[in-house]
Design brief:
With about 180 residues, the protein is of the alpha+beta class. The chain is about 35% helix and about 15% strand. It has a four-stranded antiparallel sheet with strand order 2-3-1-4, covered by helices on one side. A hairpin with a 6-residue loop joins strand 2 and strand 3. Helix 2 packs across helix 3. The longest helix has 13 residues. It is elongated and about 55 Å long. It starts with 8 loop residues before the first helix and ends in a 13-residue tail after the last helix.
């Protein structure tokens, strides 16, 4: 399991701001969190070195690139053995339609997010890119109607009730107190 890094409120604020807009300048970041630009640069550098910040990505609109249909493909591989995992994942990652690949537990071995031009393109991808390979036992397709980004990723907050009270019902005032 990865070792967690202790983050203070300034670090958390920087991470929130950078996740909302990774192109924010150090000067603007520093002003928003109330530190000197050099301090801001040092903190962001430390967050990169510690592996918390993994990089910066450019997000594109698949529809504007001619890939207006997105889907999630649940894939079952048989036999599900170590020597097939690496080559299967690399082959799927090499497909220009693949956006993300997840290796899962449960009845499906992989979940693959794909972006294609249309239904004909999706059918071609499933038949030629997936089921044409002997180890692929099953592919189940779910179309994505719409997706939303969620808030920034931050460490879990401490439980305000503490471990002893976690899950205990909240105290309610009695009718006699008063």
């Amino acid at each position: 399991m990865a070792e967690s890094v202790v983050l203070d409120p300034v670090d958390l604020h920087l991470l929130t701001l950078l996740q909302n807009d990774a192109r924010t300048t150090y000067r603007d970041l520093a002003a928003q969190v109330g530190v000197a630009p050099s301090t801001c640069l040092d903190r962001v550098t430390r967050l990169r070195r510690s592996g918390i910040i993994l990089g910066h990505q450019l997000r594109l609109d698949p529809a504007k690139l001619g890939r207006g249909l997105e889907a999630l493909l649940s894939v079952q591989v048989r036999p599900h053995r170590r020597e097939l995992v690496g080559p299967f994942v690399e082959r799927i990652r090499a497909l220009q339609e693949s956006r993300t690949v997840f290796h899962l537990t449960g009845p499906d071995d992989y979940l693959v997010h794909v972006a294609v031009a249309d239904m004909t393109d999706l059918q071609r991808l499933v038949l030629d890119g997936f089921t044409a390979h002997r180890e692929v036992a099953r592919v189940e397709t779910r179309l994505i109607f719409q997706q939303w980004d969620c808030g920034p990723l931050l460490p879990p907050r401490p439980d305000p009730l503490g471990p002893a009270r976690h899950g205990a019902p909240a105290a309610t005032p009695s009718a006699e107190s008063g």
